[in-house]
Amino acid sequence: MPLACTGVNHRTASVALRERLALGPVAQQRVLHESRRDPRAPFTELAILSTCNRTEVYAAPVDASDALLELLSNIAGVPPAALLPHTYHEAGVDAVRRLCRVAAGLDSMVLGESEIQGQVAAAFRTAEEAGTAGQVLGAAFRAAAQAGRRARSETGIGHLPTSVSTEAIRLLRDVAGPLDRLSVLLVGTGKMGRLAGLALRRATARLTVISRTAAHARELAQHCDAEALGWHELANAIAHADAIICSTGAPHAVLSRDLVQGAIATGGARRRIFVDIAVPRDVEPEVGTLEGCELYDLDALQQRLAGNLETRHRELPAALAIVEQEVERFDAWQRRRAVHPVLIEMRAQGEAIRQREVARALRRLGAASPEVAALLEEFSKSLVNKLLHEPTRRLPTVGDPELARALFGLDTG
User: Which of 47, 90, 202, 335 is the most buried (most CB within 10 A)?
Assistant: First the structure.
């Protein structure tokens, strides 16, 4: 087989097993270098794609899956027999199809996610640096990169956000208008809060960060070009904010109805939008009943996210069609590559026959003039080119070099 893939992913293996197979760039380099130095390795090209959701090895040429399973077994420190039930194996264009689907985000935990495209590109760069990327892997990864780019530019597979933090910002923009006109308060600096803060960076008229831990607030504010305030300034910050995004890890609500009502009395009547992405909730539901206050919680965001995923799923057939187009291009390249040596031999055979026949004709003609000899040369070359034109054009679509050798008598010596 010209190309093969063996791997595990979030559908076939537990987190614990995926952790054993996870390889950073340095570890990938080590495995690739060891493979390159191993004279027993049954492949000359090798690349490793390792993310939190998958570890896949792509190799060429490979005649059996055993070698790749053994490679994964050595990485994980798990016997091949124990690893086998959790692996999948693809060969030929099916391996390219898998790589293209992965790069397009069609095999991800979140359909259409874009981070995987960069991870696929990084895997190939690592193989190039280790000297284990050759023509076959180069063509396969180019097809995957093109599939990923086209899926995202020609379909809506990755257009709508699927993370809570990103959708919170999108909701805010939808209900309040342009963010650059808003003063936004971010309450909480955990993972969700950090993601929201980074998404809001330089997008709002004014961004303020508050956390119970002042150092955390200052750190996030520095990364987000924001102002950090102490927890004791929470009510005053609410008073002067147009939008409040809450994502603390508190076990109870930190924005009570009384606190917000007091802030309104201080800051005056204005529209205030509360987006609560915390679990448990940070904002008491009664806040949404106060005049000028609108409250959106995680349930509202989840409904929007479900709609986003439904929209992405509607784009799936178009993205799959793009994958198939790139797989077909790879297959055409592979066929051309397979028959190229045959085409060279076929042309050489035709030229040898032409030269013999021209020499024989000249001998029979006797003392032919230079003009006649030149005419025979031109005629014979044109004839051979015309006779070999269609075989030369059609052989790559057949992709069977042995059949071509038999048909043209190239296997007779």
Answer: 47
Classify each residue of 98-117 as buried b or exposed e, where b means 16 or more C-beta atoms within 10 Å of its C-beta: bbbbbbbbbbbebbbbeebb
Contact 18, 55 (CB under 8 A): yes
One domain for residues 63 and 99: yes
The pLDDT tens digits for 199-233 are: 898 889 899 999 999 999 999 999 999 999 999 99
Pick the closest to residue 206 from 188, 229, 232, 233 (CA basis): 229
Buried b (16+ CB within 10 A) or exposed e, 244-275: bbbbbeeeebbbebebbeebbeebeeeebbbb
Q: Are 293 and 344 found together in one domain?
A: no
Question: Using CA atoms, how far apart are residues 216 and 2, in angstroms rounded to an integer?
Answer: 52
The answer on 233 and 256 residing in a single domain is yes
Q: Which of 160, 182, 217 is the last residue of a domain?
A: 160
Helices 135-154 and 93-103, axial angle in degrees (round to 10)? 40
pLDDT tens for 366-384 read 878 888 888 988 988 888 8
Q: Which of 213, 230, 215, 221 is nearest to 184 (CA)?
A: 221
Residue 306 CB neighbours (<10 A)? 11
The Cα 292–Cα 260 span in angstroms is 11
Number of domains present in the structure of the chain: 3
Helical H segments across 12-76, by residue range? 15-21, 25-37, 66-76
The DSSP letter of residue 255 is: B
Shared domain for 352 and 288, answered yes or no, is no
| Residues 182 and 149 grouped into a single domain | no
Q: How deeply is 172 buried, as exposed, middle or buried, from its count of CB atoms within 10 A (0-12, 13-18, 19+)?
A: buried
Annotated catalytic residue within 52, 224, 246, 293? 52
Backbone torsions φ then ψ of 226, nearest 5 degrees: -120, 175
What is the extent of the structural domain holding 349?
Answer: 338-407
Please confirm, yes or no, whether 52 is among the known catalytic residues: yes
Q: Which residues of 139-167 are buried (b: 16+ CB within 10 A; e: fewer)?
A: bbbebbbbbbebbbeebbbbebbbbbbbb
Classify burial at 79, counting beta carbons within 10 Å of its beta carbon; exposed 0-12, middle 13-18, buried 19 or more.
exposed
d(CA 362, CA 375): 11
For tokens 């439904």, the residue is 310
pTM of the model: 0.69
Q: Which residues pair with 187 in a beta bridge?
A: 210, 246
